[in-house]
Write a structure and sequence with these properties.
74% helix, nucleus, mRNA processing, mainly alpha, mRNA splicing
Length: 253
């Protein structure tokens, strides 16, 4: 009887145990499906991020190509000109600030420059524009043109006013009619007259060709050799004077 009751209890416990295992088996496919859906959603999110990053990179590359094409179409020295214009604008603003405070701009600028920088700039300035003397008339005319253009100080405010007043007519083309369309200011005319008078005064001080001296010693064979001898005498005459005198007297060793 005891054995039968024990078997009966085991038989009655089997339905409960089998029900719990079947519920666990039913829960497992749902969990796996949720994990798969979450993983798929994560992959889709990463794919969308990569797609957005690719579009952004494509857009940036296109902008860079456009900018590079613009830079290639600009003149070769555009960057240097742009930097020069920006520096000139900063200098003009600094001058206006100094004038508003009642200070001298040149003095303020010198106070900001160290002695080493001043010496270096002075050496660079001497190397930049050496006076090589007269070679031909074309080179002399080019040097005069460069010297005159360096003296020009454009009035940017006047330029902006003229640009607003004339618009596209300020930039003439081959079809533009320029005669009578521009009237120079009195200040500009006075400045041009003063510059021309200064050039005339300087030209009058030029040394003329020296006349030929019949009593001078002839130690040359042509005019070119005469010029060379004069240069040699100017630089080495004081060192060779005694040797030359000994040769003339015949007492040279």
């Amino acid at each position: 009887a005891a054995a039968l009751s024990a078997l009966g209890s085991l038989g009655s416990g089997d339905p409960d145990g089998g029900g719990s295992s079947s519920s666990e088996d039913e829960a497992r496919p749902g969990t796996a499906a949720a994990a798969a859906a979450q993983k798929r959603e994560e992959r889709l999110r990463k794919f969308r991020e990569l797609h957005m990053m690719r579009n952004e990179a494509r857009k940036l590359n296109h902008q860079e190509v456009v900018e590079e094409d613009k830079r290639l179409k600009l003149p070769a020295n555009w960057e240097a000109k742009k930097a020069r214009l920006e520096w000139e604008l900063k200098v003009e603003e600094k001058k206006k600030e100094c004038a508003a405070r009642g200070e001298d701009y040149e003095r303020v600028k010198l106070l900001e420059i160290s002695a080493e920088d001043a010496e270096r700039w002075e050496r660079k300035k001497k190397r930049k524009n050496p006076d090589l003397g007269f070679s031909d008339y074309a080179a002399a005319q080019l040097r005069q043109y460069q010297r005159l253009t360096r003296q020009i100080k454009p009035d940017l405010e006047q330029y902006e006013r003229l640009k607003e007043q004339y618009g596209e007519a300020l930039y003439p083309t081959s079809d533009s009619l320029l005669h009578g369309t521009h009237v120079p200011s009195k200040e500009g005319v006075d400045r041009m007259v003063a510059d021309l008078e200064k050039q005339i005064d300087k030209r009058e001080k030029y040394s003329r060709r020296r006349p030929y001296n019949d009593d001078a010693d002839i130690d040359y064979i042509n005019e070119r050799n005469a010029k060379f001898n004069k240069k040699a005498e100017r630089f080495y005459g004081k060192y060779t004077a005694e040797i030359k005198q000994n040769l003339e007297r015949g007492t040279a060793v």
